[in-house]
Design goal:
- Helix 3 runs parallel beside helix 4.
- Strands 1-10-14-12-11-17 form a six-stranded antiparallel barrel. It has a four-stranded antiparallel β-sheet with strand order 2-9-7-4, with no helix packed on it. The chain has a four-stranded antiparallel β-sheet with strand order 6-5-3-8, with no helix packed on it.
- The protein is built from nine helices and 17 strands.
- The mean pLDDT is about 80.
- The protein starts with 12 loop residues before the first helix and ends in a 5-residue tail after the last helix.
- A hairpin with a 5-residue loop joins strand 15 and strand 16.
- It is an alpha+beta fold.
- InterPro entries: Beta-barrel_AprE, MFP.
- Pfam families: Beta-barrel_AprE.
- It is found in: Membrane.
Length: about 375
C-alpha cells in the first residue's frame, strides 16, 4: 500500500472514533448488560407463568346430616337454637300431625288395591294350573288378568306341535319324537315362566301391603305427636327461623348437623366454557372473602370432583338461565393464620374465591408464543 498524505480537513470523526480506545467502564457496562440478559433468560426458562380460573365458592361439611320432618304437621316444641351442640338421639322438634285421618284413608285405599291385586294374581296362577280362564273379559277388574292368561295360552299354542304336519313332510318317527320333546320343553318353560311371573307379582304386592299395614298400625295407636331427633352429634344450623305453631311439610329439612371435627370441602361453580379446561387434580389457592389476603394468605388445595353434566339456574337480572358446572375442592388444611398469629378456622357457609391452576408455561416459551415462534 502506498503512503498518502492527507490534510486535517480530510480526516473524519468516524475515523477518530474508530481508532480511539474504549474506556474501561465501557467494558464494565457491556459485561453488566450481558450478565443481566443471561440472568433474565435463565429466570424466564425456570419461572413458570401460571394460568388460573377464578370462581366463587362456599365451604361445606363433607358429612353434613339433616334433621327432617317425617310427617306434615304443626311444630309444638323446639328444643334447639342456632349453633347449639347436640348429641345423637337428642330430640330437636316435636311435630303434631294434623292429617292422620287423611293419611289413614289414603292408606286404606292403597291397602284395598294391593289386596285385590294379590287375589287376582292368585286366580291367574290357578287358571294357568287348571288350564282354564276364570276371568270375565267384560269385567273391568278382570280384563287385565284375562289378557295375561290369553297371552300365556297364545304362547302355548304357538309351541304346540302337530305331528301329522311333520309326518307329511317326510320326518321319521324318531325325528318326530325329538321335535315333540323339544316343543314340550318349550311349553313347560312357558308354563313355569308364567307362574313365576304371577308369583313374583304376588310377593311384590304382599311387600307393599305389609308396609301399608305397618303404617296403619302406627296411625291406629293414636299417636299424634312425633319427635324429630338428631341422627348424629355436632353443631346445629337452623334451615329457617322456626316458631311454635308453624306448619312443616313431610320430608322437609328443618336443620343441618355438622361435626366440628368433620372434613370440609369447597363447592365452587365454574362456567361451562371454563369447565373444559379444568380436570381432577388441578391445584388451587383458596382465599376467604372478608379476610385480607396479605395478612391471612390463602389455603392450598386441589380439585377432587367435577360434575358430569351442566347445571342451570335462573338469574334475576337475565331472561336466560345461567349454565355452570359444580366442582369440589379439597383444602390441604382448614384454617388460616394471620401474621399476628390469629387463627381462623373454616366453617360451613364461608364464602371463598377459588383460583384454579389449569395450565402453566415458562415465561421464555410464553414470549416465544407471543412472537409466533413456538406453538403448543
Amino acid at each position: 500500500m502506498s503512503k498518502q498524505i492527507k490534510t486535517m480537513d480530510q480526516l473524519k470523526d468516524s475515523k477518530l472514533l474508530y481508532d480511539k480506545k474504549v474506556p474501561p467502564f465501557g467494558y464494565m457496562i457491556l459485561i453488566t448488560v450481558t450478565l443481566l440478559l443471561v440472568a433474565v433468560i435463565i429466570w424466564s426458562i425456570k419461572t413458570p407463568k401460571i394460568y388460573i380460573i377464578k370462581s366463587s365458592g362456599v365451604v361445606q361439611s363433607m358429612n353434613k346430616n339433616y334433621a327432617m320432618s317425617p310427617y306434615t304437621g304443626e311444630i309444638v316444641t323446639i328444643n334447639i337454637k342456632e349453633g347449639m351442640n347436640v348429641e345423637e338421639g337428642d330430640v330437636l322438634f316435636e311435630i303434631k300431625s294434623g292429617d292422620l285421618d287423611l293419611q289413614g284413608e289414603q292408606l286404606e285405599g292403597q291397602k284395598q288395591i294391593y289386596e285385590t291385586q294379590i287375589a287376582q294374581y292368585q286366580k291367574l296362577v290357578k287358571s294357568i294350573k287348571d288350564d282354564t280362564n276364570y276371568f270375565n273379559q267384560s269385567n273391568t277388574e278382570d280384563s287385565l288378568y284375562y289378557s295375561q292368561y290369553e297371552a300365556y295360552k297364545s304362547q302355548v299354542d304357538q309351541n304346540t306341535m302337530d305331528a301329522s304336519v311333520y309326518k307329511a313332510s317326510g320326518y321319521s318317527d324318531e325325528q318326530i319324537e325329538n321335535e315333540l320333546i323339544k316343543n314340550q320343553n318349550k311349553i313347560t318353560e312357558v308354563y313355569y315362566s308364567a307362574i313365576k311371573s304371577a308369583e313374583d307379582s304376588i310377593l311384590q304386592s304382599q311387600t307393599q301391603l305389609d308396609s301399608i299395614r305397618a303404617q296403619l298400625d302406627a296411625i291406629g295407636t293414636g299417636q299424634e305427636q312425633y319427635s324429630v331427633k338428631a341422627n348424629t352429634s355436632g353443631k346445629v344450623h337452623m334451615m329457617a327461623e322456626y316458631k311454635t305453631g308453624m306448619v312443616v311439610q313431610a320430608t322437609q329439612a328443618l336443620a343441618s348437623i355438622s361435626s366440628e371435627n368433620d372434613k370440609y370441602v369447597i363447592q365452587a361453580n365454574v362456567s361451562a366454557d371454563d369447565a373444559a379446561r379444568i380436570k381432577v387434580g388441578d391445584m388451587t389457592d383458596v382465599a376467604v372473602l372478608g379476610l385480607t389476603q396479605s395478612v391471612y394468605g390463602t389455603i392450598s388445595g386441589k380439585v377432587t370432583e367435577i360434575d358430569s353434566d351442566v347445571s342451570t339456574s335462573e338469574s334475576s337480572d337475565s331472561s336466560s338461565p345461567s349454565a355452570y358446572f359444580k366442582i369440589m375442592i379439597e383444602p390441604d388444611y382448614t384454617y388460616l393464620v394471620s401474621k399476628a398469629g390469629d387463627k381462623i378456622n373454616l366453617s360451613n357457609g364461608l364464602m371463598v374465591e377459588a383460583r384454579i391452576q389449569y395450565d402453566k408455561v415458562t415465561y421464555f416459551n410464553y414470549v416465544l408464543e407471543g412472537l409466533g415462534v413456538l406453538t403448543r
